[in-house]
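Before the break, one more example. Copy the sequence into your notebook; we will annotate it together after we see the structure.
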Amino acid sequence: MRRPCPPPPPAITLLGGLAVIAVLACPTRGEDPSPPPAGTDAVASYDPLALPADADAQAGAPAPVDLDVVDAARGRTIPVRVWLPAAAGALPVILVSHGLGGSREGPAYLPRHWRFRGYAVVCLQHPGSDEAVWRDLPFAERLPALTAAANLENTLARYADVRAVLDALGTWTAEAGHPCAGRFDLAHVGMTGHSFGAVTSQGVAGQAIRGGRRPFTLEAIDAALLMSPSPPRAGDAAAAFGAVSIPWMIMTGTLDGSPIGSTTPAARREVYEALPAGGKYELVLFEAEHQAFGDRPLPGSTRPRDPNHHRAILALSTAFWDATLRGDEAAKAWLESDAPRTVLAEGDAWRWK
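Here is what the structure looks like once it is written out:
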């Protein structure tokens, strides 16, 4: 495993009038040189990886709850898995959209950590682009079936799934006797996903289509974490992402190509470049392939997963949720400082604007 980066002194340069902190030997940078609002002490004491003492045994926490959202208008049932901590009361909500051929069951390392940090995590399963597409097919037929499922019809269905699930959460949290009664704070909602799940998240969290319209954007979503995002299929990234108003965090890797399709690692980085300044973040993991964000190998993978990748993903994503869904100033200051270097390895890149 590569060693985490040491804290080298930053070099300050000017690019287009912006001060950029370039970290030597570990290329992280921040595009905001102002002092962190919560102060040095707050940054030093904030730890996004900290969990309750009983977290390893999951003592006192309920088992994940599997439920179905029935969208009668579309004749469609959306399976969901709800992760809740033991703590009572309404919690900020994180919606998770799986990648092509996935399910509500994984990857579990993300909801397991986030729920112990005090979030209600709801993992969606999208019929038509889930594991049912490939599971019962001979091996040789699986990749063609998955490729065929990555279409516009399923993309639009996924957008509508997110809306239907949000509506259902509102009903469940208000329903006495429901397993999720009183558990969802729908005034604070985050959206995330990997690959096709990132495409889904982009669409409901502010991406524009031709003409600058945003017909799929859901106002209920306050922040989005996009793992292996994609530029638009038609038009340029600036038109698609240039007016995103809510916080976005991009995560990708230097080898994050597409097992299906032609999206390159360089194309994934176009998304961050096109975003306007203000609450925008990007993590690029060194030598991370597409599989780095999941918990199982994917077609086209050529190397074992670096165990530090998941650690970095958990730390930075948790700080992002704390900053955006809880308004935690210490978390925001941690993100916009040199502190993330403590969980990154040499070659990983971190920046914000």
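The chain has one domain: 53-328. The longest strand covers residues 184-194. Try to locate both features in your own notes.
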